[in-house]
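User: My instructor asked us to take a sequence, write out its structure as tokens, and then describe one feature of it. I'm not sure where to start. Here is the sequence I was given:
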Amino acid sequence: MAAPKKGRGPSGGQGRPGRALVLILIAMVALTGGMFLSGHTAPRLGIDLAGGTSITLKAENQPGKPNAINPTNMDTAVGIIERRVNGLGVSEAEVQTQGSDNIIVNIPKGTNSEQAREQVGTTAQLYFRPVLTVAASGPEQPAPSGSPTPSGSATPKPGASATPDDKDQGEEATGEEATPSPSATTQGRAVSEGLKKAPTPTPTDSGEPKPSGSPEASPSADPATAKLQEEFAKLNCADPEQRASAGKDALPTDSIVACGSNVPGSYEKYILGPAEVSGGDVDDAQGAIDQQTGEWIVSMEFSSAGAKKFQTITSRLSQQQPPMNQFAIVLDGEVVSAPSVRTALSKNAQISGSFTQQSAEDLGNILSYGALPLTFEEVSVTTVTAALGSEQLKGGLIAGAIGLALVVIYLVAYYRGLAFIALLSLLVSGILTYTIMSLLGPAIGFALNLPAVCGAIVAIGITADSFIVYFERVRDEIREGRTLRPAIERAWPRARRTILVSDFVSFLAAAVLFLVTVGKVQGFAFTLGLTTLLDVVVVFFFTKPLMTLMGRTKFFSQGGSWSGLDPKRLGAQPPLRRSRRVSASTEPKEA
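Assistant: Let's start with the prediction itself. The structure tokens for your sequence are:
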């Protein structure tokens, strides 16, 4: 007689549920400990919950570049704006495209957020232009127009000088020296020289620069010069509208008039020559403290091509007299700095002067990330106050609490004792979700916004659905007449397959939604996908092992009315018994 085959024991570690429970307990302790050790004990909130600013920028067509607005340039602009804002320490800022020509910048309220907002507004291209003329600008100091500058209108030269990194600091131009504004005749010559790009002007008998090898001419001899002179004379940089429009729509090859301000409340106006170096030629720039003088400076490093261009322009400017020995750093048509040049520079250079830490870091940030392939118009700015964000967060939490309460009421009313297992599983899922979200903030920049809260609320139903599937499978086994412990083990393979298929569909939907959408909807998709994965972990490593242990207790195994597993209430049928077949060997043989 053949020996009976040994029954196959529970698979997947079901015979030792304690191990799975210990494993998930260790994971919970590790995540909670990491959360407290990192100092991030709460998820980081987005601007709709914490307050902040949302800026919409619209790309504009540029003269001579009708096809400049394309996906490649838009993606490049997004990367540069993001690096510019993040360079100020606002790592939670969100920059993304919307449609074909819009960029949305979300800056949460916090450290450096206002400073970042100011720099986001300056999104156009960056150029280095030679200074041809500079004068004070304001209603009380009209610009010269065909006559010498009135007495007393001399303006301080911008307190900055460009020097090579290895230059002896004793040779630097320091302080703010007053430089008389040139006469109208001299201005005309300077503009003409800039338009002709004469390499080296020679001084006249009066000491003013004069184009080498060219006769002394009137400013009105060149129509382009006369036009610039007229614009320069009319420009009032104290007027915000004129200041905003000056030099905006010019091509890099054009000479322009522009405004600048070295001291708050006082403005200078410039005539600038064609751009000779662009922001794209700057590899890196940053504000730093000069170790010898202890003053704040801006250190620049150019690319190979940029170094050659910069050496050419500084070599020419260093041989000229003020203010034509200056080059202007122009961003969005505004002069952000106009240092003077004392010697030829190449790959590395410093801008020194009356910098504070913030102004040095701002200028370094602009030089590093200011060269955009497109110009943008600020279409709208929406600010969400912290109070409004708190109200929205409160509303989201109330909605989540109501949803959780309804689930608990349903579980207790229908599943009775089994609701205890479901509630503990929901608690474990909530702890894992909270700790992981808190750690993802500093790790990948995840910010909890209102749609993400909605995703977490939806996840409550998804997690509860997995428990219900398993509980119903166990009840089906009891209805067929099996006792609790065999019912728990026989129901698991069928329930497991259903749970995996359901969670796979939910995760696939979340992944597709995350990939094809932008903005806050991605927060919903990310949270939904995360909680769906955690649902699988909780059901496999907590709910099933806990159910196995509870099945061994007297309360559940006896099938009391409050256990949720009462065979009478479930309408259990008596076990089916098959009648034994009469063996052929026992039948009477025919004679």
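For the description part of your assignment, you could build on this observation: The radius of gyration is 37 Å. Try explaining in your own words what that tells you about the chain.
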